[in-house]
Design brief:
single chain, about 625 residues, alpha/beta, Substrate Binding Domain Of Dnak, Chain:A, Domain 2, Rossmann fold, 4 domains, six-stranded parallel beta sheet, 16 strands, about 50% helix, about 10% strand, globular, binds FE(4)-NI(1)-S(5) CLUSTER with Oxygen, binds iron/sulfur cluster
Length: about 625
């Protein structure tokens, strides 16, 4: 087994990894080591098994002439595999968006009493964008029309996605010219699967062109709608205090961990945890209270809106259980390790699946239905309370690490914060960039992966960027990594940020790294970039802006889709480890080069977070030069 210090930079994680080792509990890092060496063909993307004449694999050391049985070469095989990753990632995000739209519809029809429309202003403005009449109508009537329109958009066959029309004019025109303006989410994803079926297209460029269209239907479609509709239904986040890391688990309270992505059930669980019946049951059971904490993006969702503490990010999901203090873990969909059930079996922990889309063999399933959300949430909490008495005190060890944080930033709150109370505008942000107080901005997002030291790349990249006066916005597991390192506090600006960024953080009272939510909330970054373009003075398109993106520790297909919609929106984007495409130099050249000429954005792969940060800074400087901006104020 490798040293725990080599596995993670996080102290709480290291402590529980030691405990896992002492108790012979296998975790992701052990399984990763036992998987070595991993399949080179898979890593390079040159294995094809989409038809039964295969599987075929291309010799990476050959002369390049080798073909699969059907005649497909490495370029075709690599492009098809990558395109299918995009489709799968876009499907996951978009299906999440669909479920929120469904909840909005049921709520509007009075069939799901647990959900009340929380943000009327956003409902009215989104309805307006969809051409729905607002004046003189009840919010439920408007919401019903909106939910129906949105649900229809998933299967829309022709036309253009409404949200994609929010992009800067020049961008929309470019997408139209390239033929990649997304029509419907389902349509683009299905077409991606069709195009990559045996014996359809074998021009790698054409395959990846549609890959961008499918990715755009995620970022400017499914994900953006997931964000907007969640804001309408659960409330648009406001800056809020919270806590993070395994130390948020409580010694003497019932610990319920919610894990996954969709906020529909966990929102109600948070509310039900304050129900008088639940509170009296807790007392009977001898616990001091009930503590809801989250893992992954479900956690980000309820942190952003309610300040619910974060227990950890992707690689900490098993570790939360190994503290021995979790009475119940409730999962919905996405980023759930199948290993959770084995780890839960080592403790008293009850694991509960809730989505019909996601069951684990042998694990209790309590199916979530919007119509009965509150009762179901209470039933789950009752199970947790009942299970508290089975917790073995002698097996509990909760690390003390527990950092304060501020989250809850959105495209709208950047407005009111940087713009001041009376003049909601991006002007001060643009002016700060133009004047050279801020170099630019970077989105650092994405997962953890045991192929890199847990949290290390997220934290070091973010620190290097803010040191160089680059404002960082973050989502997903990257945001949680920063939180655990104490970087989501205003004080972090004084410790780590450059002088220009420090001045801004001090005046406005914000951290140098802004937590803007879950992975579907990367759409908030797209909107922020668009608002910056529209404010004026920094070019006419997202590709003109001094900005960059990164997913330093990515693992999920969703990250590939996110990367592609950022690149297709004109953003230079770095991934820590390469996409599985290096088996085709043509595809690699396109992804890391040629795309720039087409869409203004491209990828780079760099595992060293400091080097990667400097590639981003170089890119930002190049954009500043092209815009003829002033030199940096403090250089
Ligand atoms: O959707 S960052 S590990 S939890 S995929 Fe998963 Fe990656 Fe975390 Fe959020 Ni996003
Ligand atoms: Fe082999 Fe072609 Fe079938 Fe792929 S599609 S498995 S390369 S024969």
């Amino acid at each position: 087994m490798s040293e725990v210090k080599e596995r993670s930079v996080d102290l709480a994680t290291q402590k529980i990894l030691r405990k896992a080792n002492e108790e012979d509990i296998v975790v992701a890092w052990d399984r990763f080591e036992s998987m070595q060496p991993q399949c080179g063909f898979g890593e390079l993307g040159i294995c094809c098994r989409i038809c039964n004449m295969g599987p075929c694999r291309i010799d990476p050391f050959g002369d390049g002439a080798q073909r699969g049985v059907c005649g497909a070469n490495a370029d075709t095989i690599v492009a098809r595999n990558l395109a299918r990753m995009i489709a799968a990632g876009a499907a996951a995000h978009s299906d999440h968006g669909r479920d929120v739209a469904h909840a909005l519809l049921l709520s509007a029809q009075g069939k799901a009493g647990a959900y009340k429309i929380k943000d009327k202003a956003k409902l009215a403005s989104l309805a307006g964008e969809y051409g729905i009449k607002v004046e003189g109508r009840k919010k439920e009537e408007i919401a019903e029309d909106l939910a129906n329109k949105v649900l229809n958009e998933f299967g829309q066959q022709h036309g253009e996605l409404r949200m994609a029309l929010r992009a800067p004019k020049k961008r929309v025109e470019l997408w139209r010219k390239l033929g990649i303006m997304p029509r419907g989410m389902d349509r683009e994803i299905v077409e991606m699967m069709h195009r990559t079926n045996m014996g359809v297209g074998n021009d790698y460029k054409n395959i990846l062109l549609h890959g961008m269209r499918a990715a755009l239907s995620d970022g400017w479609g499914g994900s953006m709608l997931a964000t907007e509709l969640s804001d309408i239904l659960f409330g648009t986040p406001q800056p809020i205090r919270g806590k993070s890391n395994l130390g948020v688990l409580a010694e003497d309270e019932v610990n319920v961990v919610v894990h996954g992505h969709e906020p529909t059930l966990s929102e109600v669980v948070v509310e039900a945890s304050r129900d008088p019946e639940i509170l009296s049951l807790i007392k009977e059971d001898g616990a001091k209270g009930i503590n809801i904490a989250g893992i992954c993006c479900t956690s980000n969702e309820i942190l952003m809106r309610h300040g619910v503490p974060i227990a950890g990010n992707f690689l900490q999901q098993e570790l939360a259980l190994i503290t021995g203090a979790v009475d119940l873990m409730m999962v919905d969909v996405q980023c759930l390790m199948p290993a959770l059930s084995n780890v839960a079996d080592c403790f008293h922990t009850k694991l509960i699946t809730t989505s019909p889309k996601c069951k684990f063999p042998g694990v209790e399933h309590i199916e979530f239905k919007e119509e009965k959300a509150y009762e179901i949430a209470k039933d789950i909490l009752k199970l947790a309370i009942e299970n508290y008495k089975d917790r073995k005190k002698e097996r509990v060890s909760i690390p003390k690490e527990n950092e304060d944080l501020i989250a809850g930033f959105t495209a709208e709150s950047v407005f009111s914060f940087l713009g001041g109370k009376y003049r909601a505008t991006y002007r001060p942000l643009n002016d700060a960039i133009i004047a050279g107080r801020l170099r630019g901005a970077a989105g650092v997002v994405g997962c953890n992966n045991p192929n890199l030291k847990h949290n290390y790349a997220h934290i070091e990249m973010a620190k290097e960027l803010i040191k160089n006066d680059v404002l960082v916005v973050t989502t997903g597991c990257s945001a949680i990594a920063d939180a655990e390192a104490g970087l989501l506090q205003p004080e972090a600006a004084f410790k780590y940020a450059g002088k220009g960024l420090q001045e801004i953080c001090e005046t406005v009272g914000i951290p140098p790294i802004l937590h803007v939510g879950s992975c579907v909330d990367n759409s908030r970054i797209l909107i922020t970039l668009t608002n910056v373009v529209n404010e004026g003075g920094l070019g006419e398109d997202i590709s003109d802006l001094p900005v960059a993106g990164a997913a330093p520790e990515w693992m999920s297909e969703k990250a590939i889709s996110i990367g592609f919609y950022f690149v297709a929106s004109g953003v230079f984007t770095i991934f820590g480890t390469p996409h599985p495409i290096l088996g085709s130099s043509n595809v690699t050249d396109l992804v890391c080069g040629g795309l720039e000429g087409m869409v203004g954005g491209k990828f780079a792969f760099e595992a060293d977070p400091i080097k990667a940060a400097h590639l981003m800074i170089e890119h930002i400087n190049k954009k500043r030069e092209a815009l003829k901006l002033k030199p940096m104020m403090y250089e």
